[in-house]
Amino acid sequence: MKRIHFLLLFLLVQLSLRAQFNRGVQWTEDGNGYRRIENKEIVQYSLPDLQKTVLISAKQLTPAGKSEPLTVRSYEFSEDGRKALIYTNTARVWRYDTRGDYWVLDLDKNTLTQVGKGRPVSSLMFAKFSPDGKKVAYVSERNIFAEDLATGKITPLTKDGTTRLINGTFDWVYEEEFDCRDGFRWSPDSRNIAYWQIDATKIRNFLMINNTDSTYAFNVPVEYPKVGERPSPYKIGVVSASGGATKWMSTPGDPGNTYIPRMEWASANELVLEQLNRKQNQAKCLYADVKTGRTTEFYADSDDAWVETKSSYSWADSPAGWDWLNGGKEFLWMSEKDGWRHLYRVSRDGKTEKCLTVGGYDVIGIVRIDEKNNYAYFMASPDNATQTYLFRVRLDGSGKAERMSPASQVGSHRYDISPNGAWASHSFSNANTAPMNEWLRLPDHKALKESDDITAKLAAQTSAKKKVEFFRIKTEDGTELDGWMVKPDNFDPTKKYPIVFSVYGEPASSTVMDRWGTGRNGLYIGDMAKDGYIYASVDNRGTPSPKGRAWRKAIYRKIGIVNIRDLAMGAKTLFAQNAFIDTSRVAVHGWSGGGSSTLNLLFQYPDLFKTGIAVAAVADQLSYDNIYQERYMGIPQENREDFVSGSPLSHAKNLRPTQNLLYIHGTGDDNVHYQNAEKLVNELIKYNKQFQFMPYPNRSHGIYEGEGTSRHLNTLFTKFLKEHCPPGAK
């Protein structure tokens, strides 16, 4: 995962998995029903009556000679609905289980047949039906195959794939930073397959060391382009589904100094590509003629800092897909060109465009494009950046955006809207209200079942004290920050209490959101409020909060500077406004980017922060990957001083004897390498700075593998905090 805040990890992973594998709702083609996996079967519910029908029984999912049905990880139906592709026996690749086995269930013949027989177990990736349902294509061991379902014939479409020459999927950094995993696309006429080829042969391996799983230690290599290193060159190729030579597209520029995060079919004979320059502040849209390979630029977007890609937004169909309108004559595009993130309708030739979401607010994400009824449904929060609400706007550009979420439901919403725009799965929560779920009729936003009606449930709730309190403060720099605070139980404003800050601080995530889970600490054993702690967080400039481009891009080339000052000045303002905070007992903690912020706050503002617990931090910004760091910081060959000045390593000498630091890192972290920990340790040793250090052998960025790991980590966190920032009133 990107260097995300630990408390958000679970939620973000679940969102990503849902988009990747459709484990939740899968809408029927007409939008009047949905499918799901239930009790080892695939069932369908009709709307609005919610009547259940078993589409595929456990018996149908049981292979011949086996007594148990397949464990269905995900599934898809062919376009005619007569075949189902079942994904099972999965294995993890870096972050998600994108490897596994696939089976095809022919509903007419009632036969269950494994796809890719003869390939290694759990080696197939991203299998999908051709549009005509006659073939299935998949990646296995970095090559692409097409299998004829009638004959069982398997045709290798590429043969040159290796661990470093990658066909149909991606290297580590494309997956991590662009959410690119599935790297091939069927043509609309089922005749061809377009795919990425990533050449990682020139990317150096970062060698992790495993000291525990054998008598002799061994290296675990990860092809990992550090910031300042050139990207893996790419090619975009088109190959016949029957096999043969690949036709390579002639993309402009140096493929080893640019990126292509998006590629889709524009028609049966044409591809559409999005190409980014190395700094990721210029985006070009290209058409590629699949017969000649010639590419033509037709649209461009740019930013003084960086251009967001589709993977950065919450989008209904995941980062894949190009959103065509009007029979392919127009498409949708998201841009911050007027200072806010807005949705634009653009002509196919790129010469005319119209902003659909006019106003001083950000579009947070697209939920559904309902072209038939002339609406785009999207999430936004014009008045409170900590919350999210559903809006819709006309696709023809007439009229203003209309809020759909009820005014009585104050907090954060999630929707999955049917293709026909008539129904939705809806969930709601806020920091003080546990998640509620309902099925809705749109556009009146009315619950299908009275017993699930969220509006009625909220109205029936008795008024209770809000445990998580939100606030806004203005720092001495004139910057207005959102924040939240949880006060101790039996709070007495005449007494003084220790405060613990939770931080992240970087462009990948925000910590101040009015949704369930905010105000809770997943590392602390027990109840912080009950034990007598104030728990708090503030949201600095540079986070992805919907506060406009200027807010988000203020951090460009200033990670470790602007965000850290905002967090520190936010704390300082909070101290000045609340006499009940004991400024001699101030702690801060964070994970990954939040670990970096924790270190920088301790080192740069030692007068404010006394105790810090940093996990898996980037101590040296020159050690992280090229796509992330160069997007937000530039290229170090041009502005190395920015990387150095923003790195905790440069400020470690400022740690005071009166401060307390606990640093934690997994030695098997393939994301933020353990190298960061050893560099930091060396720097602290150099200046005779005393601290506590905990390495977790072979644990990854999440530090969860191995028996007892989570319990040990939680115990360590809690014990250190209580010893060095004692709880309770004084």
Automatic annotation (TrEMBL):
Residues 78-434 form the Dipeptidylpeptidase IV N-terminal domain. It comes from the Bacteria. The keyword Zinc does not apply. It holds the Pfam family DPPIV_N. Keywords: Signal. Residues 1-19 form the signal peptide. Residues 528-724 form the Peptidase S9 prolyl oligopeptidase catalytic domain. PANTHER family: DIPEPTIDYL PEPTIDASE 9 (PTHR11731:SF193), PROTEASE FAMILY S9B,C DIPEPTIDYL-PEPTIDASE IV-RELATED (PTHR11731). This is S9 family peptidase. It comes from Runella salmonicolor.
